[in-house]
Amino acid sequence: DAKTTQPTSMDCAEGRAANLPCNHSTISGNEYVYWYRQIHSQGPQYIIHGLKNNETNEMASLIITEDRKSSTLILPHATLRDTAVYYCIGKPIYGQNFVFGPGTRLSVLP
Amino acid sequence: SAVISQKPSRDICQRGTSLTIQCQVDSQVTMMFWYRQQPGQSLTLIATANQGSEATYESGFVIDKFPISRPNLTFSTLTVSNMSPEDSSIYLCSVENTQGHTEAFFGQGTRLTVV
Known about the structure:
heterodimer, A: mainly beta, five-stranded mixed sheet, B: 115 residues, mainly beta, seven-stranded mixed sheet, 11 strands, 0% helix, 50% strand
């Protein structure tokens, strides 16, 4: 799995966009970028994943740089319920397991 | 997405005893995994639960301490044996490659406290 680097923590004002960065400069060509989040006392929740094109779903948008060395998860209108630890993981779509780093602790402030 | 039920959701156990955690999935899945999350830490993979064969353990985890069963494609158990306070953690079941999805889905976890 690609090693990823994320900021330890971030704050975001409620209603504003939360932009969570992730560096994955050693990512391989067959590795996707996955994002999960873990709200306190719950199991990790899948958010989104992508290979090289930008992706959007009902939860978030994923912007991957053209060289694939970094990406940004965007929560367009953060709410208090988005307060969680966000994990960025590089992994082939098949095979290998998900390896979780320390993630980014996002605090959405009222 | 897969619906994963873990039992128990939490337990307080005496040191030296064992606890078996159950993971039930609402559909057949290829891959099932067990993770541990120690207080304030990220998730660490314990083992891959293989259907019909012995589990594959990660470095630092052994079968005698964490025996795993997977009798079919929808169910698995993890036993934490001869518990000590250091085993106090959240234990999570995860599945992959279900119903055309390649992402992993997680149960809500079992919060274990050993006293």
